[in-house]
Amino acid sequence: MKKNLPYIIGHRGASGILPEHTKEGFALALEMGVDALEVDLAMCKDGALILRHDLYLSNSTNIASFPKFKDRKTIRTLQGKPVSDWFICDFTLEELKELRVKQVFEDRPQEHNYKYSLTTLSELIDQIKAYPKTKPIQLFLEIKNASFHHRNNLNIEDQTLKVLNKHGWNNAESPVYIESFEVSNLKKIRTESKVKLVQLIDADLLNHKGELVYDNQFGAPDDFGKYNDARNYGDLISNKGLDEIKTYAQAIGVWKPYIVSYNGEERTNLVATNLIERAHQRNLQVFAYSFRNEWYRLPLEYKNDPINEYLHFFNLGIDGVFTDFPDTAQQALSKFEESIKEEESFFYQLKKRFGF
Fold it and tell me: What is the DSSP letter of 238?
């Protein structure tokens, strides 16, 4: 049976090489041949949707160097914990455009720090539409911390659909997936739009037994507390949980250990799960995050070679991978395609020789 090729999804652009969520990083990812781009949405106080992973600014911009913004630093509750920082929701788009961004990982290239500005969702859609391409580019839009936005009187879901409407991309045929780590907002979007949806699945950590742990701030959807829902993300990937997800979403996006578990302390003892099979039985696509090149992020069985990790997931039937390094993912995909051709050729020869 012919295997489908997985999506190579540029995670915040080509974020392993250039600062994340920048036009320049998106351009590089597109040049590397990605099938899709994945970005995070945050809403500023005048309604614009800025592409940022964090809802605060000190970690990824030069906000601290602006004396005029000194008094904007404040304390807000984020996923149950107080955070002291400059928050996107306290700035206008015009103010945010004054900032410049930096690489958030200290062990990645720093020479492009403070060269590039922040990007909006509309700017990215225009960039994708203008890119000369031979294949449609998919766009994965993660709504960041919806409950935080709601507590600050910002309806990020409505604003996202408005922007998609403006660009003609608010329909089932559009090259768009909307993602969230929360549940109620995706269910609400489903009643208002036919755009494709992805239920994101997280966990707090992976322990030494290869078990996912759910006892802290990333163990359950942030909105479950509001509705007194005692479930965690582990419950959502049970058969019952997947049955519920398929009523409103087309896919799940999971942390990699949900697909391949291992000893979280020693990075050994790889064990594949049956989640992909169970999701596919329910016509749910499965995407996994985040694929990175650094050796210390890889289980030891992959022998410090990220391509081995990609090939493992590709052979398990993953539908797409979120990667910080699209060029490495493309190298792995080429190897995977070669293996498919060899496999198909082998079976073709058997069929030709023995007539079955």
Answer: S
